[in-house]
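Hi again,

Forgot to attach this to my earlier email, sorry! This is the prediction with heme C bound. I've pasted everything inline since the attachment limit keeps bouncing my files.
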Amino acid sequence: MRSAALTLLLLGCGGPPALPPVEPPPSIAPTGDADAGRALFADRGFGRSGFACADCHPGPSRGVRPAPSLSPWAGGEARFGGRPKTPAEALAACVERFQDRGPPSPTEAAALRAAVEPAPVAMPDDPAALYRSACQHCHEGGPAPAVVGRRWSPSGLRARLRRRPGLDEHMPAFDPAVVPDPALDALIGWLAARPPRLGSGRLSPSIAISSERP
Ligand code: HEC
Ligand code: HEC
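Structure tokens for the complex follow:
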């Protein structure tokens, strides 16, 4: 009691705030089954959202991805939502937010950690290749709605690609450090110029109209 009161008193004195207690060591084992981890990394069935780690985070595909590289996390330095976290907390926060599932088991977490390798990203220099690298695997090739061949306003596209997703959404924002403005503008111009593909599959007129709602 007494020392707690003393701490409060000291904190109240206007000096620099006391440092928080040292974080416990990362609760994710440093070694795990890397092959199992690579399989989990690519598994769209791991959560309920339909997206795999590899859809969002850079990895073996070397494609452009919106989410951060996991190398610092595997090294024990983790953040989520701009705040420092333990690696286990950051992993749990991400899979809850983006995969709609509970925390991985310690074995799964250790396997995922062991599977992370520095992933050099190949930045394409033309917009069609950028779409194939950064977007197509989720859209035409994944659970997200098709995008190519629909009518888009350039400003609507730009806003969607740069903003943080709403709570019911899963597409992370593309940071300018990942897709710089000139490349984004070229991609938007390319998408806006795709001929409409009305009537084929999910690209029905009603969807094209709904995409023009604010
Ligand atoms: C639909 C996209 C998406 C999926 C799927 C996804 N993530 Fe993430 N993840 C993100 C985004 C975006 C962030 C950054 C969020 C923030 O900090 O606000 C993030 C952050 C993280 C972090 C914290 C990174 C750091 O710098 O400390 C970890 C760890 C993580 N994810 C691991 C995973 C793993 C492992 C999987 C698969 C089991 C996965 N994520 C699946 C989008 C995703
Ligand atoms: C991790 C998967 C993923 C990646 C990568 C991704 N998207 Fe998306 N995108 C989604 C999902 C899911 C939605 C539906 C809204 C949501 O959940 O965020 C969406 C929505 C959109 C929308 C609005 C669609 C609508 O029907 O209103 C556009 C436009 C879009 N994405 C374009 C792109 C472009 C361009 C890229 C590449 C630079 C890209 N997306 C990369 C998953 C992804």
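Residues 74 and 148 are 35 Å apart (CA to CA). The pocket of heme C (ligand 2) is lined by residues 51, 55-56, 66, 134-135, 138-139, 144-145, 147, 157, 160-161, 165, 169-171, 174, 211 (CB under 6 Å).

That should be everything now.

G.
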